[in-house]
Amino acid sequence: MADARRKVLLAPVTVTPSKPLTPSHLKGLLWADVMYRATKAYAEVTYRYSHTTYHRTEQTSGFWEFLDRVRPGADYAALSESDVGELYVRYRAEGHAPTAGALRPYAEAIENDGFVHPAGARVLRLWAGHYERLGLHDPGLLAHQPPGFGLEEMIEDLLATGLGLDQRDVGGPVYLDATRYGLPLRQIVTADGRPNYVACALRELLPLAPRYDEIVLLYDRELDPDYRALERVLSLKGPTVHRVPIGRVPIGGKISSARRGGWGDHTVEALLRSFADAADPAAVRLAMRLYFIASLGPGQQDSFRRDLLGRYLVRAEGLLSRAAEAPEVGPEALSALLRRHRRGHIHTYVDPYRLTSSLLGRRGPAVGRSLLATVSP
Asked: Three-state SS for 125?
């Protein structure tokens, strides 16, 4: 088996714990989950998804500073995700950019003590419950997982490879400089030392890259310019880097950022609540994957349809029922079946869309439980 020992790093874009999970978030999480489950049947796969790494972004630590400024001493233990999300919408609407001095205590607490604000901790605990019900692999939602590089160490690494431009000594910012590859300059650290999402991703992925044969980056299509730059930088460390952009899920024909609110009852919490009376939790888990991966596909043309998700629940129940009667296959045969759903021979990872779509064929033998388990537990 040519790539049985291939080492693959799966690194999906990380959702910050400041808002409820929406259908767009769920789509990305399910794609990553199926890719991880299926690929690890024949390769060594590490699923890296660290919230700790990204707490220092202004998107997160700035929100925490806002909460402590406008709601000092508040108790978040009983709030829902939507409650916290509404506060996040207020933060964004305020338009007040926190100063480096205001964020410094949070940066130091995050780096030195693994600090997580009570509001963020509350959301992460709620998400852990959703992961359990959805059968998602938990890559460490509640764990302290610091990146391998400190901020200065990351900048030094970029400078050493000619990919950094540090102008802080003249009052300027730090840039990721891949212009020799035809990519634009990208600011990653402000003049006063505040890192953005790209800087945090580099802190995490640069020290990991040399340990793997392949890296798979899953992300929102809107982030494509940044991930093209990450692909270039990481590939210079040795691994083959694959980008897998995934479209968001329109609601009523519109795609909007969760930072603007308006999610209403289109949250993962609400979806799970609507299926609370479903007879078989396993069928719900499988239906979610069939709908968000096979039906919606990698694009973003089709709006979310609750009624269609309900139809996939019926199909999932049928698949599970027939699987109980189907003959099982051994590990080698399962590996061969899964390899058919790669994008090509240069890719070790299984394409979630190809795999889940194959389950919906009306002809052919019933799918066995071992194959279904690579899609949904």
From this structure: helix
Under CATH, which number does the domain 1-377 receive?
3.40.50.620
Q: What is the DSSP annotation of 286-300?
A: HHHHIIIIIIT-SS-
Which tokens sit at 46? Answer: 């590490």
Burial of 17 (C-beta count, 10 Å sphere; 0-12/13-18/19+): buried
Q: Are 328 and 370 a contacting pair, CB within 8 Å?
A: yes
- Three-class SS state of 264: coil
pTM of the model: 0.94
Distance CA 293, CA 241 (A): 22
Note whether 280 and 255 are within 8 A (CB).
no
pLDDT level of residue 1 (50, 70, 90 thresholds)? very low
Flag whether pLDDT at 256 surpasses 80: no
Please check the confidence at residue 255 and state whether its pLDDT lies above 60. yes
- Report how far Cα 300 is from the mean position of its chain's Cα atoms: 17
Q: Encode 169-235 in three state secondary structure.
A: HHCCCEEECCHHHCCCCEEEECCCCCECHHHHHHHHHCCCHHHCCEEEEEEEHHHHHHHHHHHHHHH
| pLDDT tens digits along 112-152 | 999 999 999 999 999 999 999 999 999 999 999 999 999 99
- Distance (Å, whole) CA 30 – CA 36: 10
Distance CA 245, CA 230 (A): 13
